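Justification of computing resources. Each target in the renewal requires a structure prediction run like the one illustrated here; the chain below, 255 residues long, is used simply to show the kind of job we budget for.
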Amino acid sequence: MRGISLFSAVLLCLFLPVAAPAAGLFEDVTDLSSFILASSRNSVVATIIRTEDDKRDASIFLLRACYSFKTHFLIQAEQPYVTVSSVSGIESGFADFRFRIRATLVSRPGASVFFLTGLRTGSGSREVFPFASGSIDAEFGWAVVDTLSSFILLGAATTAFVWRGPETFDEATAHGNHLIVNVGISFPVRESVDVAFLGTGYVLTSGAFRELYAIQGSYKPSTFFGFFGSLQAEGGKEKERVSDFAITAGVRIFY
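Resulting structure tokens:
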């Protein structure tokens, strides 16, 4: 019951109205949700993301590794490489390196509560903003997962505190302290196939707000590897969006 009440609180937070100029970084809606729902097994992931809006097109090539530590901790590290095409030309370079930890606080049949923390290094090339932040972001939050008879409910809220020098601020690269709220529902279609519907609210302390939605499918033909793909879109006003849509495809190998 406590898990359900926490999930409901997250769902209410997602739909709180907030005034919104555009701002923020590119977000993959499925990234955090997949990390929360991931099994406690070591794995490596290779992903290709294609995202577009009316100003730029981008291709993101991402390598990610997950390591399970003492059963209660799952550690994830990822490094993207980005190619961005816009009216000003083509820019390529590494995006920010990202490190995350999931700590299990409560684990019982049908329900789990996790503490989440992470670090975005700001090591990426500024030329590929909004895929590189030019900042150091420390992330803290929690997640609740409830497994019901035929589906799984997910709720999460993470806060990021952003450190960067004043000389790196400008209107075209707005990025500051923010809250990200995730909700989702996952349906195991068969033993090896899952479909998930996800929603995310991205709120900056400056008052900016974005809403993102995604559908993700995964197929695991064996215990050693699986495939996944997703389609993501940003809702709300056009001026609030960082991208219009994103398509993702990838493979996960367990070891």
